[in-house]
Write a structure and sequence with these properties.
The complex is a heterodimer of chains A (about 240) and B (about 160).
Chain A lengths: L1 H11 L2 H21 L8 H15 L4 H13 L1 H7 L1 H6 L1 H6 L1 H25 L4 H7 L6 H11 L3 H25 L5 H23 L1 H29 L1
Helix pairs in contact in A: 2-3, 2-4, 8-9, 8-12, 8-13, 9-11, 10-11, 10-13, 11-12, 12-13
Chain B lengths: L1 H14 L19 H20 L6 H17 L6 H6 L1 H11 L1 H4 L1 H8 L9 H32 L2
The chains are: A mainly alpha (about 240), B mainly alpha (about 160).
């Protein structure tokens, strides 16, 4: 009995356990998503986050300890974003052909993302600090937290809004586009990446490589544009 | 601490790898190279981070790295002998496929951290969820609508 306890104490404090748990939970979640034929509602990111959160809760593991293992996965985010250059170059002809629509959609989408969330938030009586945290919600987490800091929103609350927005967009984009009978995967992917940043981009790559490429472009460009626009917009928005 | 343990094992595993005995012992078939592509990706990211910080650009380092790599790839794919096959079947392409294919996994650590802070939603949880839901739909509609509208206008214009 006490042997089991000391084994657990050892295992739970090594990065090995939580890295392995993260990868295993992902393989399971991705398998479930594949079995559902990539049904939009069966989102592997959401399933995986829920599974691991339950395990942490059941074992009373603090997040800091979990992250010591998960950081190796987290670290790969940077190189993975760089790696989007490969599908970008493979699809460079179609990207060039859609350059003007893409830039126009970026401008409109970026502004609508910020303005709509503030107006809706006011409508539902959300306090000012929550509104500020919501402004960069469509931007990938690292950049969004930087923007939040600049405009006076709380970075932890912003991270929460970013992930909520990402999962929401990843789940909604396919049914929404199918409902509207939009078959242009460049346009579909671009709107997924613009609204739902990396988690939307991950979904877009599940559906179609062209959609994924355009989602990746939207994620990158919207991070830049929101970082420039948010400090200008905020004074008269919130 | 973990690194100490790993390095203690390293010499033993490396010693067997020198291909001197390859005729008497079957060796593992040579697989695609992982280290080369990973070094290319990390170098681009590193260059991106250095550029972003030294010029204090509002652009995330990995996004600059993405642009750098795309420019390099375009420059190389234009040269004779380095065709499109490298981009779809080369080692870099395979590594990129693995990383981009598992993009969702890479957001899991952040996502788990966020779940721990769900209490930040407080009394406004319902309002926030509806706001995020509705704003996401409006944003996606505005984006896809603009994209398709401009595309259609461009087809008609010339």
């Amino acid at each position: 009995m006490s042997d089991n306890v000391s084994l657990w104490v050892y295992l739970s404090s090594t990065p090995l356990l939580w890295l392995t748990v993260t990868l295993a939970a992902w393989l399971f979640s991705d398998w479930v998503a594949l079995r559902s034929r990539r049904n939009a509602l069966v989102n592997p990111v959401l399933i995986c986050i829920a599974l691991i959160s339950l395990v942490l809760l059941a074992t009373e593991t603090p997040y800091r300890l979990y992250f010591e293992g998960a950081q190796f996965v987290h670290f790969l985010l940077g190189p993975a974003i760089v790696a989007i250059a490969v599908p970008l170059v493979v699809n460079s002809t179609i990207v060039r052909a859609n350059l003007l629509p893409l830039l126009a959609a970026l401008g409109v989408g970026s502004v609508v993302a910020m303005v709509s969330v503030v107006l809706l938030g006011r409508l539902f009586g959300l306090p000012g600090d929550v509104l500020l945290a919501l402004v960069p919600k469509s931007v990938t987490a690292g950049v969004a937290m930087g923007i939040a800091e600049q405009i006076g929103g709380g970075p932890p609350l912003t991270a929460l809004m970013v992930v909520l927005t990402g999962v929401t967009g990843a789940v909604l984009v396919t049914p929404l586009m199918n409902l509207l009978r939009i078959r242009d995967y460049a346009a579909r992917g671009f709107s997924a990446g613009l609204s739902a940043h990396g988690i939307g981009t991950a979904r877009a790559f599940e559906v179609d490589p062209v959609a994924g490429t355009f989602a990746g472009i939207a994620m990158g460009l919207n991070a830049v544009l929101t970082a420039i626009l948010a400090p200008l917009f905020v004074p008269w928005l919130v | 601490m973990a690194a100490d343990r790993a390095s203690a094992h390293a010499p033993a595993t490396c010693a067997g790898g020198s291909g001197a005995d390859s005729e008497t012992h079957p060796v593992l078939p040579r697989g695609p190279s992982l280290l080369g592509p990973l070094t290319i990706l990390l170098s681009c990211q590193l260059a991106g981070e250095v550029l972003a910080r030294s010029l204090s650009l509002p652009i995330p380092g990995p996004v600059i790295g993405l642009v750098l790599l795309a420019v390099l790839l375009l420059a190389f794919s234009g040269r004779p002998g380095a065709g499109a096959a490298d981009l779809t079947h080369g080692d870099l392409a395979r590594t990129a496929q693995v990383l981009v294919g598992a993009l969702g996994l890479l957001f899991v650590p952040t996502g788990v951290g966020v779940v721990q802070q769900l209490n930040l939603l407080g009394t406004h949880a319902v309002g926030i969820l509806i706001t995020v839901f509705a704003s996401s739909i409006i944003t996606m509609l505005a984006t896809v609508g603009t994209f398709l509208l401009v595309k259609r206008l461009l087809v008609r214009a010339p």
